[in-house]
Amino acid sequence: MRKSNEEFPNLSLRKPPLKRSKTIPNPKHTHFSVSVSDSDEQWNYPSFLGTTTKKKKTSFKPHNLNLPKPSLVPPPPPPPPPPPSTSSSPLSSQVTRPQHHQRSPILYLLFIASIVFVPHSAYLQYKLTKLEDEKLNLCCQIDFCPGNERTSLQKVDGSFSYILNADSRTVALYIVVVTLILPFMLYKYLDYLPQIVNFLRRTNNNKEDVPLKKRVAYMVDVFFSIYPYAKLLALLFATLFLIGFGGLALYAVTGGSLAEALWHSWTYVADSGNHAETEGTGQRIVSVSISSGGMLIFAMMLGLVSDAISEKVDSLRKGKSEVIEKNHILILGWSDKLGSLLKQLAIANKSIGGGVIVVLAEKEKEEMEMDIAKLEFDFMGTSVICRSGSPLILADLKKVSVSKARAIIVLASDENADQSDARALRVVLSLTGVREGLGGHVVVEMSDLDNEPLVKLVGGELIETVVAHDVIGRLMIQCALQPGLAQIWEDILGFENAEFYIKRWPELDGLFFKDVLISFPDAIPCGVKVAADGGMIIINPDDSYVLRDGDEVLVIAEDDDTYAPGPLPEVHKGLCSRIHDPPKYPDKILFCGWRRDIDDMIMVLEALLAPGSELWMFNEVPEKEREKKLVDGGLDVSELENIKLVHREGNAVIRRHLEGLPLETFDSILILADESVEDSVAHSDSRSLATLLLIRDIQVSSFVAFEIKVIMFTSLTIVSCCGSQNVYHTKTLGSLTTLGSVTCSKLQLNQL
C-alpha cells in the first residue's frame, strides 16, 4: 500500500481512503494518546531503521479533549512533544483557557435572560390570573357555580392595577430576590460588561486598559475625597434603601399594605427591638435582617460622628485653626532666640495688662508649646498662641491674621547666613503679597550685613532690618575696651529697667533741642525722629535743632507711661572747667576663634584703639585663608594704621596650644563663636565655655597677679570677668541676646 501511494500520489485526491483510528497508549506519558489513521501509517517510520526526512512525526494530543474531525488535507506538523520532566498541568491550563472564553458569552446570555424573564414571568402570572377570573365569570353565567356563590365580578381591564392585589406580593418578592442577587453578580462579572457590550455591537475590541471594577472603585474614591458631605449622603442613601428594600420584603411576606410595611421597616431600622413581637417564619427572618441592617447603619453613623469630632479635635491640637485677633504681635519662624524674645515682650506688655503673641513656625503645635513651657517664666498676663504652618504660604499667614498684627517679627533660621537670609527674603515677599495689606511694621532679623540692602529694596519702608550678628560683634568690641559697659547695654536694650521710647509731643514743637533736653524730669532725650526726612532718627542732634511739626523725641525712660514733658526749668549760667580727654595708650587684644564678621570688628578696633596696638588672632584657619577672607570682606590689611595683626594657628580648646600664648600680656581676650560651629548653638557654647575655663585655669596655675578683661561671645551672649578678683558675671544683651540663653543660666548658677 505504501508503494502504491508513492507511485500514484494523485489517487488520494480522487478518492479518500477509508480511515480508521488506533489509540496507542504511551507508556511514558499516560496523559497523551497517539491517533493513527491508515493514511498516516506511512509516516510512522520505525525508529530502529534510522531517521528519514520525508516522514512526519506522530502528533500528541490530550486524551480527554474532543478533537475536531480531520480534514482531507494533512495538517501541518505539530510542535514536538514536551520533555518527560514537564508536567501536564501547564498544558491542560493552556488548553482549557480558550474554552473558558468560549463559554463566557453563554453565561452572559443566561444572566441577561434571568433578568429579563423575571418581569416576564410576573406578566404571565398576571395573564393567568386574568384568564382564571374570566373563566370563573363564564362558569357563573352558565350556572356551573353554586347560587350562593354567584357574584357579579367586575370587568378586568388591561392595565396593571390588578397587580396591586395578591400578585403584587409575588412581584415584590421577585424584586427583593433580584436586588439581593444583583450586587453579587455585578461584583463578580462587572469586568466583563465591556466585553458583553462589544459582543452585542459585533465588535472584536475586547481589550480594556483598566478593568471596569477598578474604574468604578476609583470614581467612588474620588467622590468621597472631593465632596465633604459624601459620607453623610451615602449613609442617608443606605438608610432609605434599607427602609424601601425592607418594606418590599415585609410586603411580600405579610398581609398588610405597602405603606404599613414601609412604616414597620422604619421602626425596625430605628429600634432593633421592635421585631420581637413579629409572628411567622418569613416575617421574622425579614424583620431580623432589617434590624441587623439598622444596627450597621447606626454603627456607621456613630463612626462618622466620631471621626468628625476626632478630626476637629486633631485640627485644634495641631494648630490648624484660625487665629481671630487684632493688635497682636506676630512672630514668624522658630529659633533658640525665641525664649528670650518672648520674655522681653512679656515684660514690655506688663504695663498694658498683657497682650497676645502669636507664633507661626514649621513645627508641631504641641512641640512648640512644650518648648515654651520649659522656659519656666511668668508671662505676666501675656498669652502665647502657637500655630503650625509656613510663613511662605499666604494661607498660613492669613490663618494668623497677619493683616491685623501691630508688629511682625521675622526670626532668622538656624541655617547658615546665606540660607537664612534667603529664607527671610522669601518671607518678606510673602508679606508684601498680602492683599489686605499690613497694619504694623515688620522687623526682619538678618544674618549677614551684605544682604540687608536687598531685603530693604524688596520690603520698602515697612521693613526694618536688624543684623544681630554684626551688631553684637561691635558691642563686644566696646565692652572689651570699656569694662562695665555690658551692664549698661543690658539695662538699655532690655525691658527690665530703662529702655528707648519714641513719642510725639506737640507742645515741644518750635523748641530748640537744648531746651528739650531739660524738659523731661523722668527721661533722658537722646535723639529726634525727623518726619520731614522720611522718619530718619538723628542721635544727639545739635543744640540749635528746632523741633518741627511731626517730629518725635527719642528718650530713655523707665516705661512709656512714666515720663512727660514739664515746664522749662530756670538755668543759671556759669563757668565750668574744661574736661580734657584722657590720653590713649596702645592695647594688646586676643581673638580666640573666627567669626564671619571679624573684618567688621577689626575696622571698629582700628577706629577706637591708639596707634601701636596689637591684635592677636588665634584660630584654626590657615594664615593664607585668613588674608583671603579679610580681603573678600572688604578689609585691606595694608591700610591699617593703629593696629597690627599677629596670626597664630591652634585650637582654642586644647590646653597645650593656649599655653603657647602670652596670656598675661593681653589687656582683653575675646572668645568668639567659631564660624565652623555657628550652626550648632550648643556646640558653639560648649567650645567657648571650654576655652574660658582653660584660660582661667592657666591664669590661676601660673600664679601671675594681673588684671585682665575676658569677653566671651557665646553665640549672642557676653560674659565679662575680672581675673584679679576672680568674679565672673554672665550678662545678656536684652532682646538681642537670645542664642545661648541656656548657657548663660548655667553660668549664673555656677558663678563662673
Automatic annotation (TrEMBL):
Sequence ranges of Pro residues compositional bias: 71-85
Pfam families documented for this protein: Castor_Poll_mid, Slo-like_RCK
GO biological process, alphabetically ordered: monoatomic ion transmembrane transport; potassium ion transport
Compositionally biased region (Polar residues): 32-45
Membrane topology, as annotated: Multi-pass membrane protein
Location of region: Disordered: 1-97
Lineage: superkingdom: Eukaryota
Gene: LOC100802316
Keyword Transmembrane listed: yes
UniProt-annotated location(s): Nucleus membrane
InterPro entries: CASTOR/POLLUX/SYM8-like, CASTOR/POLLUX/SYM8_dom, NAD(P)-bd_dom_sf, RCK_N
Assigned keywords, A-Z: Coiled coil, Ion channel, Ion transport, Membrane, Nucleus, Transmembrane, Transmembrane helix, Transport
Keyword Membrane (UniProt): yes
Name under which the protein is recorded: RCK N-terminal domain-containing protein
Family of the protein in this entry: Belongs to the castor/pollux (TC 1.A.1.23) family.
RCK N-terminal domain segment(s): 326-467, 586-742
Transmembrane annotation, as ranges: 106-126, 171-190, 232-253
Cellular component terms per the entry's GO annotation: nuclear membrane
